[in-house]
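Changelog note: in this version the structure field was regenerated for every chain. One regenerated record is shown below for reference.
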Amino acid sequence: MSTVGTRLHVVSGKGGTGKTTVAAALALALAERGRRTLLVEVEGRQGIAQLFETEALPYEERRIAIGPGGGEVFALAIDAEQALLDYLQMFYKLGGAGRALRRLGAIDFATTVAPGLRDVLLTGKACEAVRRRGPDGTGWAYDAVVMDAPPTGRITRFLGVNDEVAGLARVGPIHHQAQAVMRVLKSAETAVHLVTLLEEMPVQETADGVAELRAAELPVGAVVVNMVRPASPAAHPVPDADPGLAAALARAGLAGAGDLAGPLLAQGREHAQRLALEQAQRAELARLQLSVHELPLLADGADLAGLYRLARRLRDLEW
């Protein structure tokens, strides 16, 4: 796996495409031969904990898995209220006063009513992990950070909110922090990967998301096509009726062969149409001029064993 230059992998996708599963599998794939990867959740759904079959993630970095190559995967569920307390302590040294504000409900109020503040805190915490040095001060604390980000429809606004903050707060620590976050998000260290299915709506939303990210000068990574069905023979036209099929079924000794032929032909036509649709969606994705990676549909669902299977597929891809 090539990861030269990229240390923050932002994974987005239309709801229902399995972006959290892909983010988790990518974190496992990046944990190779002693490498440390941090998997970050920002939506408060505890989807990562469910995938790894562990208890709910606290607001602290905790090891949750060993990658296929022997590295470690840590996870963090970012809590916006706690992140705001961290910022208040970092910039204004509030200490116990910050905790008092939380008890009074002021922290929850601020993160609820201030436009974009929650996204500023979430992106800032993830970028802090990217920039953080290890205990000896020489290497990085994490070789890679993977963010399970919001859906494609709002990913550009989510990542670009610090540009707005930097424009509003033109001086002071908040301005400098917002600029520092955007330097990470717009750098070669970052790649925004979009997860899709071979269906019209997810592919169209992926194309729209790529256009928005490029317009905002945010670095687009790869497109991951998830839940791809096993390869099938090339589709051929299926007739509306085929007397020969009914005769063949009868010779095979199937009772009610005449009644079976019609439904089998209908199923064949549906299968051929689906294959044609999938090929059309592949052509649409190719027009984006990005790396496109396909992941198979997991027959048993996205359990822990399935995650490791997907991780092994992702290890050998260019990121």
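Spot check on this record: The first helix runs from residue 19 to 30. The chain has one domain: 8-231+289-315.
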